[in-house]
Structures are given as structure tokens and as C-alpha cells.
Amino acid sequence: MxxxxxxxxxxxxxxxxxxxxxxxxVDPGEIVAVVGGDGAGKTTLLRTLAGAIAPTAGExxxxxLARIGFMPTAAGVWRDLSVDENIAFVAAAHGIAxxxxxxxxxxxxxGAGLEQAASRLARDLSGGMRQKLAFSLAMLHRPELLIxxxxxxxxxxxxxxxxxxxxxxxxxxxxxxxxxxxxxxEAERAHRVVVLDAGEILLEGTPAExxxxxxxxxxxxxxxxxxxxxxxxxxxxxxxxxxxxxAGHPRAADIEDAVVAAAIAKGA
Length: 268
What we know:
Layout: E1 4-13, E2 16-26, E3 31-35, H1 42-49, E4 57-61, E5 68-71, H2 83-94, H3 98-112, H4 127-139, E6 145-149, H5 157-172, E7 176-180, H6 184-189, E8 192-197, E9 200-205, H7 207-212, E10 217-221, E11 230-233, E12 236-241, H8 255-267
Parallel strand pairs: 3-7, 3-8, 5-6, 6-7
Antiparallel strand pairs: 1-2, 1-4, 8-9, 10-12, 11-12
């Protein structure tokens, strides 16, 4: 089976590197979560994998465009078309018709919980329903590489669970999935995680490897410490230390702590 991804990819914009030597691979049946703050390079990386941006340097390995599914942030549907019309439009673009279209339409609408909304205009759907429709459109032609740019951002909790179930199903059916997400609990459920900051990879690997790769360690505290190394978590605080953790203690409790700690360590 072919692995897709990028090797040493750099993308420059107005003299600034939006991506700097980034490498990423995703195998069929695997979910790779790309996380990072605003401006980290997540969307640039995904659009480069999709062929929408030509890299300044490096190499992208991807299937033919017709075998890629792409779901952009807060888009991917035609709001003035009904759910059924959206599906028919995308199906026509991919040459899907007859029994194949009927079977795929039924499966996707059932999986997205949109069976009773087939005649509704996309603009009249809730945000969560619209995102599930956008995912269904990206999956309609059963792509080899599925690229999702923050598919669950801003949707209700129930729809977010539904979307993750749909993503997991796509991977189980053989799609290689790369998804940017702002929800780090989703990243923890992915097969592998890539943490970006200012166009560079801070951490990567399985969720366990990401936690183990944090420089220094993070401790919980009731009071803030050094402002440059402290952040709020719930009612308490987290404090990053550049020292290795005491024996038997983890470097970070979860992906969120790992991401923040790595970013602090980078600037320290």
C-alpha cells in the first residue's frame, strides 16, 4: 500500500516561510492529526497536500486529484442547493451515477443523520449538519487520500462526535486521512499527531510518543509560577520546567500540555 505525504516541504509567501522543511506521511487506514495555533501552517500544509499550493522546495506524494477528498474550513457545500442537489452536483463531477450513486447517497445520509433533511437547502441546516454534509461530499467518490481542515470546529458536541465517527469509518474503509483540528482530544484519538508552530514541526509521532517527546516536563499547580512558563488549565495552572521529570513521572499529562510546553521550550 502506498503512503502519501510530504518530504522536506517548504512554502514561502512574501519572503516568509509558511512551512519550513516539513515532512509528513499517512498510510491507508490511518488518521494523522495536525495541530497548532493560528498561523502555525496547518491549512498551508493541507492545501499543499491537496495540490492547491505548489511547494517552494520539497516533494509531495499524493494520488491523482480525482482520488483526493478535500474538506475546507467552514465550507465545502453550496448553500443555495439542497442536500440532495449538493450530492447530485458532486456526483456528476466525479461521474458517479445509477446504483453506485444511490447506494453511496443512502449510506452517507444515514451516517450523517441527514435522511430527513435531503430536501432542505444547505443554508438552512445547522452548523453541525452542514459540516456533516461537507464531509459526506468529500467522501462521495471514496478517495484514497482524505484531507480535512478543522472539520469539527464550531459545531455542537453531538455533531462533533458524529463527525469523528465518520472520520474513523472512512479510515477503517481504507482512506488515508489527514485532518487539522483545534480539539486536542481528537488528536489523542488519532493514530499519529503532528504539532506545528510557525511552519515548523515541534513534535510528531503517536500520541504516546508526542507526550514522551516533550522537552523538560509539566507540573500541575494551584498557583501560577514564572509567567513565561505558566498557563491556565481549568481552575489550576500548568508550569513547564526545562528539567527532566522525576523518575516515574510523565513529561506531560495530555496532548494539550505537550503542545503548549513544546512551544514554550522552543522560545526559551
